[in-house]
RNA sequence: GCGUCGGUGGUGGAGUGGUCAAUCACAAGAGACUGUAAAUCUCUCGCCUCCGGGCUUCGAAGGUUCGAAUCCUUCCCGGCGCACCA
């Protein structure tokens, strides 16, 4: 079944999209031309990336899948790594001031990031690029020369800490020059920043809901936080200069305000304003809050197939359709079918969820693994078999079981262990499938498979 | 700079000299019921324990007291208000 370009675009602009800003449809038109191969000009999609958390979860993946679809239509995705802005602290987050992240660390983070991303996105230079915003926000004096940096300037050594030394480093580390081979690198000076700030009013910035809320609750609102959206807007401006375009910015709904500020900054600078697409937020495994690492309700795309499957199975029924929409490639027809099935009282939603889990695991680990893990899941939880590949702990002669488990971090403390035993949560499993409840918390560790609660398994050897 | 209010467990937030390992809610864990769903019910939720109890905690350090999370001193951190400056 081959969809026409128009059909694909329709899907692209509606599926999981919370809002799309593109007055007079300039972006849509350009995209259509690009997809049909009528123009050679690049279509640049900006996506802001947080450099501090390289562990991607399904919530991130929703946007990444969307980006992939744009790539498939010939667009170039540019990851904007907000290392500079992160060091300032995005007010979107929990308002904790974030630590400065070293450039080297960023590069390392990006490596792991890209490795994960490549499960979803194409990373060839034709359709992908990345750049960090310290590239234009840092000045020469922000450079921190490393020890042992050997600079030679026409036969004369240069002190790395001197301005000249820093300038050298600056030239060497700028991605615009080093990686993108730009003749002229753009940078944002204090003067330039104020030029922009002089064209944005206080009212424009504080209209943001979150700022209002903070003020109403009597919390503090710092200037740098108010400026954050502007900086993010300047990123769009910079991108336009570097990539000769910045046609669309994509992000979660929580980024809408910031992304719209990009339009403002571009307008101020007489650039064509970027379109803005905000994507629905995926809820976490408990079905209420947004999926995030700090709430520990996330499914990492690096999760082992078994964990991933289990976590999907643990979501409430009410969000099954939501997950289907945002995490799989199921088309409209199938989504409709699933919606009908979910309403059918004769069908156990669990079975639909089993399919969902398998489908999601297949995206990240392949169809074979997904099927295998589905069977293993059924075996473990329906037939109560001992799962494979569980953690093994070696026991020392005569060691108390409690000590062993605390040592291996299977339980958090001896008190914790005692409680679990008293609650009848600990069982030793026998080959035949029978279980023996552990009643003595001072028991000496003997080899075997132990089950703590419903899902913790430990093998002692 | 001045004034003022505050800093308590994973989170929010009580407690203002002994009955406080600290009400309560949320989060979390376990059991029952189940579909490793939700909802519901019960229990647990600092550490150690020979189950009698012991030990360490309330921003940090000192002090008062028989006794302090609670009072005093100093320091650190934060909110708010005022002033200075502009």
Automatic annotation (TrEMBL):
Catalysis performed (reactions):
tRNA(Tyr) + L-tyrosine + ATP = L-tyrosyl-tRNA(Tyr) + AMP + diphosphate + H(+)
* GO cellular component term of the entry, any: cytosol
Which keywords describe this protein according to UniProt?
Aminoacyl-tRNA synthetase, ATP-binding, Ligase, Nucleotide-binding, Protein biosynthesis
Query: Which enzyme class?
Result: ligase
Membrane-spanning ranges: none
Q: Return the SUPFAM superfamilies for the record.
A: Nucleotidylyl transferase
State what protein this is by name. Tyrosine--tRNA ligase
Q: What high-level taxonomic lineage is stated for the organism?
A: Bacteria, Candidatus Yonathiibacteriota
List the molecular function annotations (GO) for this entry: ATP binding; RNA binding; tyrosine-tRNA ligase activity
Biological-process GO terms, alphabetical:
tyrosyl-tRNA aminoacylation
Q: Which InterPro entries match?
A: aa-tRNA-synth_Ic, Rossmann-like_a/b/a_fold, S4_RNA-bd_sf, Tyr-tRNA-ligase, Tyr-tRNA-ligase_bac-type
User: What does the record give as EC number?
Assistant: 6.1.1.1
- Recorded family membership: Belongs to the class-I aminoacyl-tRNA synthetase family.
Q: Which organism is it from?
A: Candidatus Yonathbacteria bacterium RIFCSPHIGHO2_02_FULL_44_14
């Amino acid at each position: 079944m081959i969809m026409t370009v128009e059909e694909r675009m329709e899907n692209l602009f509606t599926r999981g999209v919370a809002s799309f800003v593109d007055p007079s449809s300039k972006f849509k038109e350009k995209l259509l031309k690009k997809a049909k191969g009528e123009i050679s000009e690049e279509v640049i999609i900006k996506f802001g990336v947080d450099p501090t958390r390289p562990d991607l979860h399904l919530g991130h993946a929703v946007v990444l899948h969307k980006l992939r679809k744009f790539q498939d239509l010939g667009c170039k995705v540019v990851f904007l790594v907000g290392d500079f802005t992160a060091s300032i602290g995005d007010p979107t987050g929990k308002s904790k001031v974030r630590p400065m992240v070293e450039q080297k660390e960023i590069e390392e983070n990006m490596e792991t990031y890209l490795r994960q991303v490549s499960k979803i996105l194409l990373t060839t230079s034709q359709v992908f690029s990345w750049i960090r915003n310290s590239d234009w926000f840092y000045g020469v004096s922000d450079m921190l020369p490393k020890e042992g940096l050997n600079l030679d300037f026409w036969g004369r050594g240069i002190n790395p800490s001197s301005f000249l030394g820093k300038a050298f480093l600056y030239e060497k580390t700028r991605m615009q020059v080093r990686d993108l081979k730009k003749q002229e690198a753009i940078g944002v000076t204090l003067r330039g920043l104020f030029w922009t700030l002089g064209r944005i009013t206080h009212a424009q910035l504080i209209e943001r809901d979150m700022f209002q809320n903070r003020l109403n609750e009597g919390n503090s609102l710092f200037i740098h936080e108010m400026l954050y959206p502007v900086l993010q807007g300047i990123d769009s401006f910079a991108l336009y200069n570097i990539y000769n375009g910045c046609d669309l910015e994509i992000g979660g709904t929580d980024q809408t305000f910031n992304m719209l500020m990009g339009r403002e900054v571009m307008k101020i600078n007489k650039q064509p304003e970027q379109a803005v697409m905000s994507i629905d937020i995926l809820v976490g495994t408990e079905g209420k809050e947004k999926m995030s690492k700090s709430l520990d309700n996330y499914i990492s795309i690096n999760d082992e197939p078994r964990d991933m499957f289990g976590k999907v199975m643990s979501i409430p029924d009410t969000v099954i359709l939501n997950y289907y929409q945002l995490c799989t490639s199921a088309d409209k027809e199938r989504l409709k079918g699933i919606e009908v099935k979910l309403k059918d009282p004769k069908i156990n939603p669990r079975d639909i969820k089993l399919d969902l889990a398998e489908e999601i695991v297949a995206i990240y680990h392949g169809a074979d693994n997904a099927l295998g893990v589905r069977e293993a899941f059924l075996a473990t939880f329906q037939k109560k078999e001992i799962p494979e590949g569980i953690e093994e702990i070696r026991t020392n002669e005569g060691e108390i079981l409690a000590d062993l488990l605390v040592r291996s971090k299977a339980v958090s403390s001896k008190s914790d262990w005692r409680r679990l035993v008293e609650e009848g949560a600990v069982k030793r499993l026998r080959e035949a499938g029978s279980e023996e409840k552990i009643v003595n918390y001072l028991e000496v560790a003997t080899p075997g498979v132990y089950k703590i609660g419903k899902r913790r398994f430990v093998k002692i050897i």
